[in-house]
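Design a sequence for this backbone.
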């Protein structure tokens, strides 16, 4: 079943704010929260993430019915990619080196910002590329 295309973009906007605060403060625990949000989105789809829940409960009713839909697999894959970067960031902030945490968090922030500001989902594009390569390999 297709999803409201505005939901993942809303989640990306919140993710952008959270990751920016992580970079400013170096907060391991805030990055742990974002990692959990990515994990829930990767495991159950973006609708199961905390940001997806917030979009459904607090935002969607106020902005009207969706006019654009997308398949859930690319945003779910993007959540998995974000999970990897956030996990690497946790390792860097928790065990060192700190530059690893900063770099991984910065990369995740850049991808989230692209989606939030311009509607360009880097993880979704990676998903489509992987699918094309997989089809050609068969």
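Sequence:
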């Amino acid at each position: 079943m297709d999803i409201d295309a505005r939901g993942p973009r809303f989640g990306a906007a919140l993710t952008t704010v959270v990751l920016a605060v992580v970079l400013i403060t170096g907060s391991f625990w805030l990055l742990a929260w974002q990692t959990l949000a990515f994990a829930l989105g990767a495991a159950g789809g973006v609708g199961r993430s905390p940001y997806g829940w917030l979009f459904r409960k607090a935002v969607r009713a106020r902005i009207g019915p969706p006019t654009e839909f997308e398949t859930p697999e690319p945003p779910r894959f993007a959540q998995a990619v974000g999970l990897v970067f956030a996990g690497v960031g946790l390792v860097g902030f928790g065990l060192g080196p700190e530059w690893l945490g900063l770099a991984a968090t910065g990369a995740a922030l850049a991808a989230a910002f692209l989606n939030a500001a311009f509607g360009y989902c880097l993880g979704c594009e990676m998903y489509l590329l992987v699918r094309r390569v997989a089809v050609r390999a068969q």
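The radius of gyration is 15 Å.
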